[in-house]
Amino acid sequence: MIVVALAAGAGTLVGAAAGCVPGLHVYNVLALPVLWLAPRSRTVPAAVAVPFACGVMVGFCLCNTIPSILLAAPDESAFFTVLPGQKMLAQGRGHEACLLTALGGMGALLFLTLVAGPLAPRALPPVRDVLRPHGHWALWCVIVFMMMSEWPKPMGMRRAGWPALGAAWRSLGFGWLTFLLSGWLGFILLFRSPIAPERAFQNLMPAFVGLFTLPWLVLNLVARVEVPAQRRHCGRLPGSAVLQGTAAGTLGGAFAVFFPAVTAGVGGLLSGHASGLRDDRAFLVSQGASKMIYGVGAMLLLFAPGVGMVRGGGAWLTQSVTAAGGLAEYYAALAALALGGALALCLFNPMVRLTLYGLRRIGSRAVSRGALGLAVALVWLLTGAAGVTVMLVALGIGLIPVLFGARRMNALGVILLPMACILSGHGPRVAQWLGLM
Amino acid sequence: MRGAALALATVGLLFLQWSARARDIPPIEIGAITPAMNFARVRIEGEVQRRAYRSPPQGVPDYLSFVVADESGEVRVQAWRTVAAELARSGRIPQRGDRVRVSGSLRVTARGEPRLALDAPGGLQKGDPSP
Asked: What would the DSSP string read from start to end of B17-54?
């Protein structure tokens, strides 16, 4: 029990620290032990690896929204958080926005540890068996919904006819272009990646850094935006909004974690639409819940006896260095989540204040510069020059929706389009058309 | 900046596409497989060790697997659905002792043996691969 507590605590500290660093993703953190252990054919004992990995995910999922909101440097799971969070940041309510996402995250964690966790080994296997044959068309439905749910941006008055039609479809067109270009990149990375086989476990990492992390950092540098002064007082939030936000986020995150290739960002999209949340504060609560369900739920799916589902990069990385499948390890995971969640919650407010203090002293542009350098250095360390090349191409694609007013979620085509084709049985055929097989 | 982003995206993708088509699938020794090579697309050459397992045993298989070994180790090759069916239909299911060259995607976990997923019938070539 002491080993579980220590490992969970250490993991939570690592995850929380990583979450507060813009440009750093938890998958980068978990990749480093894999990189060190793999050539030595070593594995980590499950008694240590399980609680540590769970602690890392809890700490990261809770604290990652801090740079997403305060610095507008989100990963793909948080870009739905950015827009209302940015609005509140501009009003001096960034601290409140961060606390709202933490509220949703804790609600989701309570659900996971007290309800879903104990029931998962019995309830999930039949659900998995029923849903498994339908993953491909569910993914295509998600793609269609993603495309259709984006609305044209107001472009002012235009002369009736082709100019007005073109203006209305401009942003949507660039959104679809982003989806197709990122999908093309995904096919290249999955079927004929330029990254060396010895680093293939990070094939998609440079693409995700380029598509989601770098564009905001680059724009922070170019636009010279500084964070306005933030106040610490938070307004009252009705309990019904918290419950509604947590429930919506839990549903969206659960859908995302269960179906392959559906990421936390998509889960956030679905939870927002399914619940029809209009209150920005309840929306932020739902985004925090969705991210927690996705990140931590993936760990439970990995460790739950009889389930055997590997979802998300964190689970893939963890299972490559440790073999865990017993009930003892599973309940150790649940204990680690509870302990880690309590520790992360205690750390959250001080970390928000520390980040705001750092931004006041150093400035958001300097922080963005540092984060940019860190992201590029990590890509180089983990994937080499080929990965940096992929990252730069992905940066070009990731800038398109930002600069042309489209939704950034379209860049998820990098994983959605190839996986939808693969699950439908057409992936190799499309790869052959592209000359990749 | 908009033009630069579009140019970077399109020219960059064309460059990646061209370099991907110009590059062969890298050959590796089975003993060199590590967890860091999870999802790597590689080519292995070796001898089939045992009779291939197929499910169902009769008729068109939905799943096919066989073990390939070289001097450094062995790996299980797996094929599903259309790929397994096409291999059976074309009479190309390898037998024990066959020399094969297999291209596919690696799956490596700490739990058990590494596996190579065959995702196209053309990824399996039988006969002595050496000239």
From this structure: HHHHHHSPPPB--GGG--GGGTT-EEEEEEEE-SPPEE
Please report how many Cα atoms fall inside a 13 Å half-sphere around the Cα of residue A19, on the Cβ side: 31
Quote the ipTM score: 0.90
H/E segment holding residue B67: strand B63-70
Q: Of how many residues is chain B composed?
A: 131
Cα A144 to Cα A175, A319, A414, A428, distances in angstroms: 13, 32, 15, 22
Confidence of residue A324 (pLDDT cuts 50, 70, 90): low
Q: How far apart are CA A74 and CA A170, in angstroms?
A: 25
Handedness of CA A174, A178, A181, A184 (dihedral sign): negative
With contacts defined as CB-CB under 8 Å, which chain A residues touch B10? 181, 396
Measured CA to CA, the distance from residue A415 to residue A385 in angstroms comes to: 22
What is the pTM assigned to this prediction? 0.88
Q: Does A319 touch chain B (CB under 8 A)?
A: yes
List pLDDT tens digits, range B57-69.
Answer: 888 888 999 999 9
How far apart (Å, rounded) are the C-alpha atoms in residues A411 and A179? 5
Let me know the angle formed at the C-alpha of A86 by A84 and A87, rounded to the nearest 5 degrees: 65
Residue of B nearest to A425 (CA): B82
Residue A133 burial by Cβ neighbours in a 10 Å radius (0-12, 13-18, 19+): exposed
A387-398 CB burial, b ≥16 within 10 A, e <16: bbbbbbbbbbbb
Q: What confidence tens digit (pLDDT) does each residue in A58-105 have? A: 999 999 889 888 876 555 555 555 577 878 888 888 888 899 999 999
Residues A336 and A11 sit within 8 Å (Cβ to Cβ): yes
What is the rounded average pLDDT of the residues B83-109?
A: 90
Q: pLDDT tens digits for A21-31?
A: 887 788 877 88
Check: CB of residue B5 under 8 Å from CB of residue A396. yes
CB contact under 8 A, B35 and A425: no
Of B35, B40, B106, the CB nearest to A321: B35
Residue keyed to tokens 């073990």:
B67
**Pairing outcome for strands B73-80 and B115-117:** parallel
Restricting to A residues 42-61, those with a Cβ less than 8 Å away from any Cβ of B are 43
Which residues pair with residue B44 across a beta bridge? B102
- The per-residue pLDDT for A156 is 63
